[in-house]
Amino acid sequence: MHRAQRVATLVQRWRKHGQTRFALRDGDDAAAYAQEQQDKLDEWRQAARDIEDAQADLFKAGIENDPIALARFEQSEADRALRNATSEAERLSAQAQRIRADRGLQEAIQDVFASQADLLNAMFEYGGNTVQAARLGLKTAKDRLAYLQASGAGDAAINRAKGDVISAQGGLRDARLDRKLQDYAFLYDMDKINKQQYIAYLMQLKEIPDLTTQQLRDLDRQIKSLRDELGADFQFNLPTTLGLPTLYEVRRTNQTPGGGGSYQDMRNYNIVLYVNNGMDQASAERFLSEAMGTNRMSTGTRRY
Prior knowledge:
Number of strands: 0
Structural class: mainly alpha
Low-confidence stretches: 236-247, 299-304
Order of helices and strands: HHHHHHHHHH
Strand content: under 5%
Number of helices: 10
Largest sheet: none
């Protein structure tokens, strides 16, 4: 039998014995004897409570490192206080103790969930999956906000939780943008996509919702830089761009057959010019003249 229960049994037996002895008394002696017995009864009851408190404290010491077990213990202690209450004030105090114990249990459970999320987030970060880690962070922030709203938390706590949700949303946006930028840059560096495709991909990134002004500016700068490089690639590049005749062909053109006659080269050449937006007609003609030399004859309009 539990030690406190044994004490309570002894108190009941002692009370019956006292009532039997009290029946044999009358007058002032009876009143004094009743008070004496009541004092002894209170003393026994307090001793029983002291034993229960000591046992509870011993049990509590063994579970202090387990928040959930500790919260459940506080619930049982509140129930015990309610059972032992002898006045309205004690009953109200025990009920308040139970409410606090219930809230403590909820907080302990939420803390376990948060620790599991932190562990999973660390695993994602270790594996380089920053997008998944950011997505998990957003879910955790939303769950925390929902819990605080459902539990009737104050405005300050709810406002802080809302701020955490907004920050987590921004973190997920940034992680997605950074991942796509890294992927596209890798494809371009490995010659999996050309410059025009790279520009098109970057243009698509500008459509991501809620990008910051700085992020949009960075994308515009990168796109402009790539377009400038693309325009430089289309500049007149001699002699590889033009299909110029070889040295042997030039010598044959200048040769004259025997008999004093002349030799006319009737071969046709297709010359393709790539002109960027910054090159005018005069510049193109000058480059063509330098490439082909002077004193060249033609029968058509000389438009290059």
